Amino acid sequence: MNHHEIKNFLAVAETLHFGRASELCHLSPSALTRSIQRLESELGQALFLRDNRQVQLTLAGEKFYQYAQKAVRDWEDICEDLGEDGEVEGVVSLYASVTAVYSILPDLLEAYRALYPKVRLNLRTGAAEESIDKLLAGDIDMAVAALPDRQSDRIDFLPLLTTHLVFVGPRAGGREYAFSDMHELGRLPFVLARSGVSRSRVDQFLRGVGAHAVRITEVSGNEGILAMVRLGCGVGVVPELVLERSPFRDDLVVLDGAPQLEPYVVGLCTTRKNLARASVAAMWQLAQERAQ
Amino acid sequence: MNHHEIKNFLAVAETLHFGRASELCHLSPSALTRSIQRLESELGQALFLRDNRQVQLTLAGEKFYQYAQKAVRDWEDICEDLGEDGEVEGVVSLYASVTAVYSILPDLLEAYRALYPKVRLNLRTGAAEESIDKLLAGDIDMAVAALPDRQSDRIDFLPLLTTHLVFVGPRAGGREYAFSDMHELGRLPFVLARSGVSRSRVDQFLRGVGAHAVRITEVSGNEGILAMVRLGCGVGVVPELVLERSPFRDDLVVLDGAPQLEPYVVGLCTTRKNLARASVAAMWQLAQERAQ
DNA sequence: GCGCCTTACGAGTCCCGTAATAATA
DNA sequence: TATTATTACGGGACTCGTAAGGCGC
Q1: B193: which of A141, B199, B220, B239 fits an S-S bond (Cβ 3.0–4.6 Å)?
Q2: Domain shared by B12 and B74, yes or no
Q3: Which pLDDT score, from 0 to 100, does residue A175 have?
Q4: pLDDT, tens digit, 9 for 90 and up, residues B102-113
Q5: A53 vs A48 pLDDT, higher one
Q6: In this predicted structure, what is the pLDDT of residue B180?
Q7: Across the beta sheet with A165-170, what order do the strands follow?
Q8: Domain HTH lysR-type, which positions (chains A, B) (predicted)?
Q9: Among the ranges A166-180, A213-227, B82-96, B162-176, which has the highest mean pLDDT value?
Q10: Chain A: closest CA distance from residue B2 (Å)
């Protein structure tokens, strides 16, 4: 028996609808069905009467509902009790781009540090597009990253802000990089991330207009892209936020007539497993409160 | 978080000794260590202070101890509440030899049926030596079987009674099957189980005296062995209990001077997974009470 | 050196998601 | 036919046991 099963039971008991409840539990309908079946098997009694059109609590289900509510409340109480006064300890390693460290993280980390001074924060900077791999490999506990196009089951994502991907050129050479003729795009020199969301957005866009870029300089990390663009290596694509925060921003310009790409959502990432850790869950909740 | 972790915590908190506690939990020391570590990670605080010579509760550990006791009590209360008045339902399939059905099971099944009338009992008879395979395959939920020589991690065994393996011959031809010369044993015709504990005991014994039986009739099921022995196919080896209960017992004799094999322990078997089911756990507990 | 808790690693089980099935209106 | 709960099945994560490590007596 585990607390997930109890939580799942409560979700079904309160919605009386497996499909709806499965969403609340972040679970597929079949998984929820089996979770309830396990519980019923362990207790030796049916908790719900369900035909395909209706779900309702049995007598045993009513009794168990009383228990389940109290059990969850008690658990939350002890967690709160143990977690108060910044008693939570441990180590949390957080991976983010330099820009994120400058722009998004200061407030969050300050608040976290104030509430949980005993947690040792381990901050690592690097290219945003590598964060998911590092998470999955267990190298880090959390990351600030772009919302992946293909959501993995193992990764939880918490949106923090939305920005745009902008096409950037050097201020001096602004004229030679023009978007007057979409079909000529393939001949422009590009400075792009080696991989990641921003890169796939650009690739997707270019395919959409039938262009095939041949002159691409690949860089790891958005900040590096701007440095290369400033040197005249080509047109870069970065999140607007990165451009605003760049020390090179006065030497760069957003290109006139450039196309609008899909919004770029930046948020906090972690694995499901890590979310069970108090130190990680605390950061998550804090970010959630500040994001809404 | 699951209830096993809480139970494990209680065991450590009450013994203040990981090794001792790991036995109580039926767990290896390393598994228990990790179980406590998971809990601590989830709560964000150390629950025990341990160097290699001493284990003691932290402040958080003391608080959590109060919670854990109550949580386990509450869980047991709800289980008892739901289980009373024979409310437990479900299906339990039980596999046993015919002899077991006649000798061991009547009392147990009667008591079970009286306490849990809603559980549908599914009784299947067959050769004892096949029970473990059927358990592992999931064909059945429980079995009456001999204590396996090599205990599997998946199987739980509850001893019910101990009997002896006896060498049996036909009453009429008792004289031709004699144990006067141990070294001549290999020339005796045997009627043995195809596999299983009784078979391996005999094989082991024969190897021990340097004999190699060449004339073996293999049978599945102890009751069948006696039938073959009665027909004069050779010397059989069966649990004494089976002989006593056999309708052929007047036509058979225990051989004089036959060697004593190791005791043969008969008990109830099931898988760990099945023990989580209320209907199975109830049978287990009932058997436990009657066995002590 | 021995005892005891902990980490490393390989293996097996359990659980989830996808897809197919049943059943109802 | 559309909707909803349930089974079948394959893949992957999690936890276990064995064995090696580390620290204190």
Answers
A1: B199
A2: yes
A3: 56
A4: 999 999 999 999
A5: A48
A6: 61
A7: A216-219, A190-193, A235-239, A165-170, A252-254
A8: 1-58
A9: B82-96
A10: 4
N residues, chain A: 292
Query: B96: domain range?
Result: 85-160+264-292
Co-location of B234 and B276 in the same domain: no
Q: How many domains does chain B have?
A: 3
Model pLDDT, residue A178: 66
B247 and B183 belong to one structural domain:
yes
- Same domain membership, residue B269 and residue B204: no
Same domain, B182 and B256: yes
| Chain B contact set for A73 (CB, 8 A) | none
Return the pLDDT at B166.
Answer: 92
List A48's β-bridge partners, or say none: A57
Which domain CATH number covers A99?
3.40.190.10
Contact A160, A104 (CB under 8 A): yes
d(CA B229, CA B224): 9
Q: How far apart are CA B63 and CA A71, in angstroms?
A: 16
Q: Do B278 and A70 touch (CB under 8 A)?
A: no
The answer, for B257 touching chain A at a CB cutoff of 8 Å, is no
Whether residues B176 and B257 fall in one domain? yes
On whether both B190 and B51 belong to a single domain, the answer is no
Which of A70, A77, A89 is facing B45, going by the closest CB pair? A89
Q: Is the pLDDT of residue B175 over 70?
A: no
Under 8 Å between Cβ of B264 and B201: yes
pLDDT band at B151 (very low <50, low <70, confident <90, very high): confident
Contacts of A87 in chain B (CB under 8 A): 44-45, 60
- Among residues A63, A82, A101, the one where a domain terminates is A82
Among candidates A3, A60, A83 on the partner chain, residue whose Cβ is nearest the Cβ of B1:
A3
